Amino acid sequence: MANEFSQAQLNMLLKMAGKKLGTDPETLRKTLENGNADALLQQSKNSNEQLRQALSNPELASKLMESPQAKELLKKLTGG
Q1: Rounded to an integer, what distance in angstroms lies between the CA atom of residue 43 and that of residue 52?
Q2: I want to staple 9 with a disulfide (CB 3.0 to 4.6 A). Which of 5, 15, 42, 76 is the partner?
Q3: pTM value > 0.85
């Protein structure tokens, strides 16, 4: 598929997300693979508040979830 992330792209995305959440990429990967995303929210109050604000804005949340990158990441994380 043309929209699939390469391993390098996925690693870069995890690195960027980990930096924003204040965690290392491998811990982030393991947390997401285990389906324990709530643990991510508990790691950083600042990031937690920013995420809540983004998700409370339906227009922004919709744009984020409709991006090809978000769709592909969700597919990879859910094994689909």
Answers
A1: 14
A2: 5
A3: no
The tokens describing 18, both together, are: 């980990």
Most confident of 12-16, 35-39, 49-53: 12-16
Secondary structure (3-state) at 66: helix
Q: How far apart are the first and last CA of the chain?
A: 13
The enclosing H or E element of 22 equals: none
Whether residue 44 is predicted with pLDDT greater than 60 in this model: the reply is no
Q: Is 48 exposed, middle or buried (0-12, 13-18, 19+ CB in 10 A)?
A: middle
DSSP 44: -
Mention every residue, 6+ apart, whose C-beta is less than 8 A from residue 44. 21, 22, 23
The pLDDT assigned to 45 comes to 59
Q: What is the DSSP letter of 4?
A: P
